Amino acid sequence: MKAGIVGLPNVGKSTLFNALTAAGAESANYPFCTIEPNVGIVPVPDPRLERIHAHVKTQKVLPATVEIVDIAGLVRGASRGEGLGNQFLGHIRNVDAVLHVVRCFDDDDITHVDGSVDPLRDIDTIDTELVYADLDSMERQLDKLRKKARGGDKESIAKVAVFEPAMALLEAGTPMRAGDWDAQQQRTLSQAGFITVKPVLYLCNVDEDAAATGNAHTEAVAAHAAAQGAGAVIVCAQIEAEVSELDPADRTDFLADLGLTEPGLHKVARGVYSLLGLQTYFTAGEKEIRAWTIRVGDTGPQAAGVIHSDFERGFIRANVYTLADLDAHGSEAAIKAAGKLRSEGKEYVVRDGDIMHFLFNV
User: Fold this and answer.
1) Strands 97-103 and 200-205, sheet pairing
2) Residues 6+ apart with CB under 8 A from 190
3) Spatial separation of the C-alpha atoms in residues 84 and 54, rounded to whole Å
4) CA dist 228 → 2, 104, 178, 180, 252 (Å)
5) Nearest-angstrom CA–CA distance, 181 and 245
6) Alpha carbon of residue 162 to chain centroid
7) Residues whose CB is less than 8 angstroms from the CB of residue 27 and which lie 6 or more positions away in sequence, other chains included
8) pLDDT digits (tens, 9 = 90+) for 69-87
9) Helices (H) and strands (E) in the chain, counts
10) Alpha-carbon span 301 to 15, nearest angstrom
């Protein structure tokens, strides 16, 4: 799963990226300081892994991960090439979700490109540029599809039926994610590389004083997100940067002193999972305990397929138990002896937190 961090210059975007990925690089306080996108692999925190590890002794414990792409700051006019905008917009097309960092702090020492702090105006600036970029792409794609549709091409006819109402949204200045799409329509638009159909999680970057409770800016962003069906979380990029440099043993006390119960990474990871309809299942054996990311509603074979395509193709069944079973009985053998180990077939819909062992034959 890949998420792209976007935002105006000087909103704390790259600081947050460096903190989340523990990259440790310092970003300069001027626009376009990130020319090529940086990519980091971020572990998804999950305390259930340690609970499993308490019972299953293994060589490695591997969390699920999210690939984060830091995309250089967009500015007004990016869709027309301002500030190397076209290059940056191309990178956004390749992600599954957009993490939109919004400046929700006041600091006279950090220049705002528009001269003042106004999160909703900033969101509108980014949305407008992305809508313009999608509108340009939509016009070009629709022209080709309509020609094929007139010739009777069934696939083109089906796409035109989805693209035309999406085009109407864009012409009204509205991101495509505001449309009421079914699953197939959503896939059609996503596969065409449109940006504004992607789900958005707003990261409200605040100062240290507002890290625990938020402020008027974050309230405005949260209301805007709720109206859009998007998500919003409060983070403090500066705190995250400091946390990333601490020994893990010192982080809890540091956060507690600030009135926080967890680092922002945890909130961001949960927000992304919720936004994309994702969940986790686990495998646990002598070599490793590992978390795997799947979509809510995936079946046993689909879950097996994220490990290897052969597992999905040759799926026979899955042996399944829960973390509660493991806590109660202490091992898979004891769970089986107690009659709690379930054998599930191809129609089984995997539940969040399932611990699974797949049997397959290719």
Assistant:
1) parallel
2) 197, 198
3) 51
4) 21, 19, 7, 12, 34
5) 43
6) 25
7) 14, 15, 18, 33, 34
8) 887 656 566 555 554 445 5
9) 14, 12
10) 40
Cβ-proximal residues to 109 (8 Å cutoff; 6+ apart), any chain: none
Are 101 and 5 a contacting pair, CB within 8 Å?
yes
Both structure tokens of 244: 């990333």
Beta bridge partners of 283: 290
Give 217-228 pLDDT, tens digit per residue. Answer: 999 999 999 988
Residue 311 burial class via C-beta count within 10 angstroms: exposed 0-12, middle 13-18, buried 19 and up: buried
Q: Do 263 and 248 touch, CB atoms closer than 8 A? A: no
CA 230, chain centre distance (Å)? 12
Question: What local confidence, expressed as pLDDT, does residue 12 receive?
Answer: 85
Residue from 64, 30, 58 nearest 46 by CA? 64
Strands 97-103 and 65-70: unpaired
Q: How many CB atoms lie within 10 A of CB 66?
A: 24
Would strands 97-103 and 288-295 be described as parallel, antiparallel, or unpaired? unpaired
With cut-offs at 50, 70 and 90, classify the pLDDT of residue 108: confident
